[in-house]
Please model this.
Amino acid sequence: MCDVTETDWDAVATAVKATQDDFREVLLVVNGAIRERVPEYTLVPDDELNAAVARNIGALLAALCERRYLAPGELDDFARTVEQRARNGVPIDEYLLAVSTAEASMWEQVWRRAEGVTEAQRVESFTLRFGNMNAITRVTVAAHRRIELVTAREDQERRALALRALLRGGLDTGESKEHLARLGLTSDRPYYLVRARARTGDSDAIPRALAGGQAGLAAFVLWGDDTVGLLRTPPSTAKAVVAGVAGPVTVPDFPVAHERATTAFETAWALGLEGSFDLPSLGLRAAVQSSPDVGSVLRDRYLAPLLASGSLGEELLSTTRAFLEAGSRRDVAAGRLHVHQNTVGYRLSRFTELTGADLSDLTTLAELHWLFTDLDLRRRD
Model:
């Protein structure tokens, strides 16, 4: 209750006390003004609105009566109110409109009960009013931003859980529809599975880049360092983005498609590629990526004997690779290596001598191709 006894503020204090005495009537007027001007407040229950308005208007009246600005604890109450409104889906601009409506309505009630207020008192009152509204706006924006961040994080977590459930499989039709709906998608058509990561730049731009401007036809979530998603159309090629893709498939095949998209992504990433790739486009490279044990065996079989020869072994390996990539033509390999053909012949002989490899044998050639691909993938690790 207003009990300030400063004689140069007594007219204002008297008006505040009269307003406090009629507080229930004032609340009805303020609440009615809010309901009329801010349609979104239909989302706020009457008892909740009454409690918040009573608390916040009461604080403003007390501050005016005591000739001061709102205290930190009072501003915290305004912050808690905006957090409640944000969780109820009330946008920040609508909340600020409600606050300004309530505050203006309160002042109207105060001045209706005021008598003998001097011009100096009126000016100081408006100074306090302006300062308090500035402070309320600051805490409102900060509190609303906090809730936006929390809500966005919670929504992201719910979306991630929904996608994980879809990719894990074993769902009935109703569960699948529910999880797809949470992602903003429907179950009436197949989807492409994609796993992607940016080599450079902002990873937040990946969904927009892959969806090619058709955001309503796709859903993405963060998955560790990667972005995983469902698209109704094949992903667009994005600069500095590596994406593995599989599909299109329906919900029962999501788990397998995700495994294939992941293998395609891991292979393309290890090879230093950019763009979108599926398993067919990567061919043997994807098989090598997904079978590291085979690569280990081949390294023991062919690479270990060469490493014992130090730098010569590396030279023999690079010459053999150049020879095979030249279609087993010594002259082409020699040109690419800038050496004489006889040098190529000598190095090939030493390679076969140290490894026991037969460069005319199809199985050996397949193993060496696998080995070279494995080394390319390991080089990027």
Q: What stands out?
A: The mean pLDDT is 86. The longest helix spans residues 119-168. The CA atoms of residues 295 and 374 lie 6 Å apart. The first strand starts at residue 191 and ends at 198.
